[in-house]
Write a structure and sequence with these properties.
Number of helices: 3
Distance between the termini: 97 Å
Number of domains: 1
Mean pLDDT: 81
Low-confidence stretches: none
Shape: rod-shaped
Amino acid sequence: MKIFFNCRIWAIALLCIVAVAMPMAALASGGGGHGAEGGGGGSHWAATDTYKVMNFAVLAIALFFLLKKPLTQALNGRIEGIREQLEELEAKKNIEHEFMQAKEQLKREIVDEAMAKAEALITGAISAEDQNKLVDEYLQKVVA
């Protein structure tokens, strides 16, 4: 497979060189000056123009067939890579969200436990006499 891939690269490079060299050779071999034939200076279709168009068409078709499969594979690979990155990022966002929810749940449980222990301590430490004293102090503050 690797040898075939290397041959394909060399073939593509050779075609690119030919694609550049052939039109240059055609232009260089074109004789005459500006409107030397016919004296009118008008534009006309020459045989070299037909060869240039045919050369371009052949090279374009050859490059299309040579590059179609590797280009499709490269683009599909890129699409898969992006899809995997998005899935990883989505999994990370879900993990972070679940982590934050667990953290909030833990905070609520700690607060509830602290409130229950504080209530138990206060209930055990305050006697009926202390309660009556607190109520009297409160009433004095409200009335005053």
